[in-house]
Amino acid sequence: MFNYIAVPILFSISLLSTDTISSNISSDVEDNITHLIVLAKIALEKGDFDKAEALLQVGLKICQDYDMSYGLPIIYDILASIAFSQGDTRKAESLLVTAIERMTLDGVSENNDHIIDFKLRLARIYSAHKENSLAEIGFKTCLDVQKDKITKGDMSTKTGMIYINILFWYGVHMIKNSRYNEAKKMINHAYDYSTKIKGLSPYQEMVILYTLADLNMELGEYDVALVKMQTAVMLGKGISSSDLPRCYLKLARIYMKMGVYDQATSAVLEGEKLARMFNKTDTVNDAKVLLDEIKQMNK
């Protein structure tokens, strides 16, 4: 029932430091690293992951040769994201661990947003591999740190977005372990907090809402699930999301639970039509199975 699509990671080129530097040599090196990162980002936008990775490895080599930490968080961020997107979670894990170690050795605080973001991704990897003890430690550590920042008055978008991500992915981890009530509380808090800050995209809001709708349906809260899924569908339409076919099938399942079979059929047919437009073969097949289930239930 629960299907998740990871919220895209925005490469943080804008976070690169522009502080005054002490020498022309270091200035040239930093310019080169910045240029390599920008070229890597362009390669990623074109779908050339190999070229992007090669450029970033050159950037790492320059940092090593000149004993510089400039740009390292961004480079490791993108390299880990590439590994994640290709399904190589163990490679992503190794990159994230190395990044945290390098940054810590350079004197970066363990509460730094980059380090917390990296630790969150490590927790997600441990969760995916059912290493639940490590995942729990990771999620709780990240949550406590960001919660403390907010309690002390940090209302920045960056801190808030990481906080929302922690709440959401911790909730997803709980769902995987059938802790549905805890997960609902966690993800509801993520959604509620997102209304207090700017930065959440329509896609991210849609993912949070359809995940909550799945939870509400699992807990028998069909009216609440219906409202949330209808809102998710509306958001998906607004951005022509490729998740929309799957959202319609989720909507159909809610209607089925409520015994509204005509509405369920309409939702499945719309999902199937969109799945064909988006070339989502698996979703087309799921729609056919769901239609058969509706026919059996409506006899």
Explain what the structure shows.
With 299 residues, the protein is mainly alpha-helical. The chain folds into 3 domains: 27-104, Serine Threonine Protein Phosphatase 5, Tetratricopeptide repeat, CATH 1.25.40; 109-200; 205-299, Serine Threonine Protein Phosphatase 5, Tetratricopeptide repeat. Helix content is 75%, strand content 0%. The chain is built from 13 helices and no strands. It has helices at 24-45, 49-65, 72-85, 89-105, 113-128, 132-151, 157-176, 180-194, 202-218, 222-239, 244-258, 261-277, 281-297. Helix 9 packs antiparallel against helix 10. It starts with 23 loop residues before the first helix and ends with a helix. The model is unreliable at 1-23 (pLDDT under 50). It comes from Holotrichia oblita (Chafer beetle). This is Tetratricopeptide repeat protein 19.
Short description:
By secondary structure, the protein is an all-alpha fold. It has helices at 24-45, 49-65, 72-85, 89-105, 113-128, 132-151, 157-176, 180-194, 202-218, 222-239, 244-258, 261-277, 281-297. α11 (244-258) packs antiparallel against α12.
Poorly predicted segments: 1-23
Query: Sheet with the most strands?
Result: none
Could you spell the SSE succession in H and E letters?
HHHHHHHHHHHHH
Helical segment tally? 13
Q: Which structural class is indicated by helix and strand composition?
A: mainly alpha
> What CATH architecture label of the largest domain applies?
Alpha Horseshoe
What is the domain tally? 3
How much helicity do the residues have? over 70%
Instruction: Report strand %.
Output: under 5%
Rough outline: globular
